[in-house]
């Protein structure tokens, strides 16, 4: 394996879609975990095919030498009416991850989202951006959730994400400004940064002190251009194949890895492709991504 100061893992979304349910619908968790083991990787996120029974999940991971790094947690903090309910759910989520030995919690606001907000109706067409009251409520909720995570020795890492209210570079900046740096960290996602209109390297450099978790994802520029021209929504972009693994798209990962090495980043970085596994074999694509990453690392670190 590559000698890095940080740990490389992989997300099961490469095998089974989270937002596009037909992607990998027939894939078993055993196949995913066997592939991860064969790749020589030791970290994964929770996926919808994984066992939900803690003892079974621990057993399946342990026998393959894999740890559970994190799990996505949707929150609806922008609406104060949901706060108490959301914080109770967040505590339960934290307790599960603590039991699994995780250290970070992938967290994203779903208020205003076309696909994730439970208050939205199917015929609506656009993300509803937050007003100032919504931003304040979101920041307050995240600070409270971050304190819960801290209570258990974990970190809330905020996942800026396509199709949500924290998507653009300006929205990432605003969220970082409004939240407590000791309670709310950033999940830096290269693909979602680019999708949201940011230069990933700029986001990395600007918020390096807040970054506690990383997703390494690439973008197919031609697909993104076509999707933008057609004005399609986020989930349609996934179906079109806008995302892929590092080295297969348009993002230049060389300066990103150079910056991570210079910063001495020591957390987890997860490979993500989020594409149709029937068309893009997850194991083969992950293997190619690892080879690409290795080619970017100075010889003395290999």
UniProtKB/TrEMBL annotation:
Matches recorded under SUPFAM superfamilies: Xylose isomerase-like (SSF51658)
Pfam family, one: AP_endonuc_2
InterPro entries given in the database record: IolE/MocC, IolE/XylAMocC-like, Xyl_isomerase-like_sf, Xyl_isomerase-like_TIM-brl
Xylose isomerase-like TIM barrel domain mapped to chain residues: 34-295
MF term (GO), any: myo-inosose-2 dehydratase activity
Catalytic activity, EC: 4.2.1.44
UniProt entry tagged with the keyword Transferase: no
Domain of life, source organism: Bacteria
Protein name: Myo-inosose-2 dehydratase
Gene3D superfamilies per UniProt: Divalent-metal-dependent TIM barrel enzymes
Keyword terms of this UniProt record: Lyase
